Amino acid sequence: MRLTGEADFAAFGLPGVPGTDAFWATARTPASVPDGDGWTTLFLRRGSGAASIGFESWSAPVPLRRWGETDCWYAEVRMPPRLRVTYQFLVGDAAYADPCNPAGAGGDRSVAATPDAPPQPHWPAVGPDDVLPLPRTRLRWASERLGGRRTVRVHAVGGGGPVVLLLDGDDWLYLHPATTAFESAVVSGDLPPVTLVFVPAKDRAAEFGCRPALWEAVRDELLPLVAGSGVRADPDRLVVAGQSLGGLSALYAALEFPGLVSRVACQSPSLWWSPGAARSADPLGGPAGGVLAERLRGRPDLSGLRVAFDVGEHETRMLPHCALVEALTEQAGATVRVSRSASGHDRAGWRHALLRDTAWALAR
Predict the structure, then answer these.
(1) pLDDT for 169-181, tens place per residue?
(2) Which DSSP symbol is given to 283?
(3) Distance from C-alpha of 242 to C-alpha of 172, rounded to nearest angstrom
């Protein structure tokens, strides 16, 4: 579909004359209409100058076009079935959330979903001006192994319980309301009570690569700090949840620190990783499964491990890496769950898997 007249805006549920105050008073986008086996999705921005839409790990930027001489800028974006994606309006060197969209992720991002994208129960819509609640318990972690100081937040959900380490914890604090979502899931009975530990990263590439320092520091420094915080926390059923490089690190910990990590929920883990791969011209172009596939071919005994794998169904180049490691992990004796999210490599698409797979990892 291509907009040629005012009636075409009405097809997206936008009546009125584009660019008028009455039009903007009711404008809510993105809005999608069926288009073959997918969707055409309309984005609007009110402004006086050119801008584009930047999508997270899904598409190249899409320029907005101006409607006549009005302040209405728009783009029609062809989207595949089942897609949830984070985006921003890019104006020069600045990035902004979409004022027409009530679903945000932090102050400068918004979330779009095609009508057939599965719902994400427990995750509330968060606008760009909303301030997310922060856990009251704040720990100062001065790590000798990792160097430097970092702030770790701890939140007992439903009175507390098994520890859930959320890697890239600041993203789940400031971009996506994990405390609210976990509380909703516990109240509804979809999760048992847990104690969330939001673990920030100072240098993701260094800390989340397949190196022991992070997990030695978690074992010897962070978990004792959590135990002494006064918050109820049961480390015996520890779950590590990570995404991308964090997912890689979580699975690495299960392989190399089995006495510490026996339950993992990883979304879109960077299983292409091997030393130096990130610096290559094509990081995903190396051997399938990277260094962890090589480790798993040695058939370690993973009979005590429960690991949930999830990857975005639109991450076509990630799928072979993940599929191989998923199979090898199960062949090594682990209890494995495999799923695919309606997203690309995007935290907005991982949110439901985070709750669902944490609950599965904790099942006895």
Answers:
(1) 999 999 999 999 9
(2) G
(3) 11
Domains observed in the chain: 6-113 (2.60.40.10), 137-362 (3.40.50.1820)
Kindly tell me the number of DSSP H helices and DSSP E strands found in the chain: 11, 17
Q: Is the Cβ–Cβ distance between 265 and 353 less than 8 Å?
A: yes
The single-letter code of the amino acid at 89 is: F
How far is Cα 49 from Cα 27, in angstroms, rounded to an integer? 19
φ, ψ dihedrals at 168, nearest 5°: 55, 45
The answer to whether residues 186 and 193 touch, using CB atoms and an 8 Å cutoff, is yes
pTM for the whole structure: 0.94
CA distances from 311 to 38, 100, 121, 213, 261 (A): 20, 29, 19, 26, 21
Distance between CA atoms of residues 175 and 297, nearest Å: 37
- In angstroms, the CA 102 to CA 289 distance is 38
Closest by Cα among 155, 244, 162 to 207? 244
